[in-house]
Target: GNAT family N-acetyltransferase
Amino acid sequence: MQQLFYIHLVIVRQAIRKDAAALAVLLTQLGYPSPQENLDFVLGKIETYSAETYRLLVGEVDGDVVGFISLHWFQIFHSPGRMGRITAFCVHERVRSKGIGQYILTEAEKFLVAQGCTSVEVTSNLRRLQTHDFYLKHGYAETSKRFIKSLVPKQG
Model:
């Protein structure tokens, strides 16, 4: 018996305001506040990430936003070319491990090359072991340690 496979077409495009609710849900899957609390935040970010050195891309399948990747690119002092940075990346839980994340990542990398980037970096929470494996599988190397310091006092 012949087995048939149906491949969904993934469209990667710039996020627009109507994507805010879907993006808020995806942020919750990353561990951020509930979609309703995130909605105004996301709407503001969509505007910010339309700026000159930022971009928020979504992956859409059959008209539904199923993933996003946010990008920033900048010149670095010690190296020629620009550095691209993935600041957030999520594929909806119900469609993970189907090649959608790989496609979104590949399209994001092409976009960064078009912006003059010669490399791209990403940070990932220490607890996200599957995510680390994903990046390693797609040619990323673990090369440094990240240090963070809050510059604003904690509230309450």
